Amino acid sequence: MAKRKRKRKSFFKQKSTKYFSRLLSELSLKKDSVANPSVRTIDNAGSVQSTNDFIYRDGTKVPVGTPYHIHIDNISKDEVYMTGGVHDSSSEIITRLNGGTTLNQYKQAKTKIPEYSTYLQPYVFEVKKKSRKLGFARRYFVKRYSDNNVFEINDVSAKKELKLYELCSIKWSLDTNQTDMERKNIENIDLLLSKGFDIELSPLQGYDSGDERDEKLKELQDTRKKLKFFREKVRKKKKRSIGKKSKGKKGKSSPTSRSQPSSSPSTGGGAY
After folding, report:
1. What's the rounded Cα separation, in Å, for the pair 246 and 257?
2. What is the distance between the alpha carbons of residues 82 and 66, in angstroms, rounded to a whole number?
3. What does the alpha-carbon distance between residue 128 and residue 136 come to, in Å, rounded to a whole number?
4. Which one of 152, 165, 268, 272 is separated from 252 by 20 to 30 angstroms, measured CA to CA?
5. Higher pLDDT, residue 232 or 260
6. Residue 11 CB partners (closer than 8 Å, separation 6+)
7. What percent of the chain is predicted at pLDDT more than 70?
8. pLDDT at residue 200, rounded to an integer
9. What confidence category does residue 253 fall into, taking pLDDT thresholds of 50, 70 and 90?
10. How far apart are CA 120 and CA 209, in angstroms?
11. What is the mean pLDDT of the chain?
12. What is the largest CA-CA distance in the chain?
């Protein structure tokens, strides 16, 4: 037992951190340390109830029934547990593994606040090619608990942990038949309203009447005509250029052919 105590004390001297050194210096570990205004001490704070509650600095478990007191830094609110009902020279620092004071539990909960505290960004609905092919689109709407504000979000945001919002998903129809699409989406809007999601939506939002496709097809055809005309123009220009070059080469390669017409009149003159 004495050997283990010496081992713990040796370990503490070697591995003590700057934080505990600073805090212990504030405590002073003297009789007048309690009067330090920056540190508050809770004497006889309790006793160890389970071997899994505390460990010594060397990692060994603190026996059940060991009394302890707590030193609390009034500035940082950090807590240091030490053995003994009241502080004396034999008190040793122990680390709490389970439980803790209300202050300590509050600090741990505060540090574990997830990212859902950030507000979501509204999403403007767009029909994707895949949804158009399937004939429907999955849409997601949220209602903020704080002010009942309702807006649409994308599928990525819908997969997050939404603690500040209530989520509602609907299967939005993209039927090619206008009447069927309107009927189905009116039912979707009624579903949203029945759950308290008060938002204005057109049942024909995302409807494709075919006019848009016709316009795009016409633009594509016009582009193809222009491209064909341009290619034909370039081809003719290139052909003319090749023809001129070939004529120039022929003229340079046969100079005697040009002198023959001048000799024929002289021959003809002799005949006359």
Report:
1. 16
2. 10
3. 10
4. 268
5. 232
6. 57, 58
7. 65
8. 92
9. low
10. 33
11. 76
12. 153
Measured CA to CA, the distance from residue 74 to residue 80 in angstroms comes to 12
- Record the tokens describing residue 63, joined without a space: 């026996």
Say how far apart CA 207 and CA 181 lie, in whole Å.
Answer: 8
Residues 11 and 5 sit within 8 Å (Cβ to Cβ): no
**Nearest-5° angle of CA 11, CA 15, CA 21?**
115
Q: Backbone phi, then psi, for 69, in 5-degree steps?
A: -125, 165
Question: How many residues does this entry show for the chain?
Answer: 272
Distance of CA 260 to the CA centre of its chain: 88
Q: Which residue has the higher pLDDT, 173 or 217?
A: 173
List, in sequence order, the alpha helices (H) in 112-255: 129-134, 155-158, 178-194, 211-253
Q: Could you give the CA distance from residue 235 to residue 154 in angstroms, rounded to a whole number?
A: 51
| 188 in Cβ contact with 171 (< 8 Å) | yes
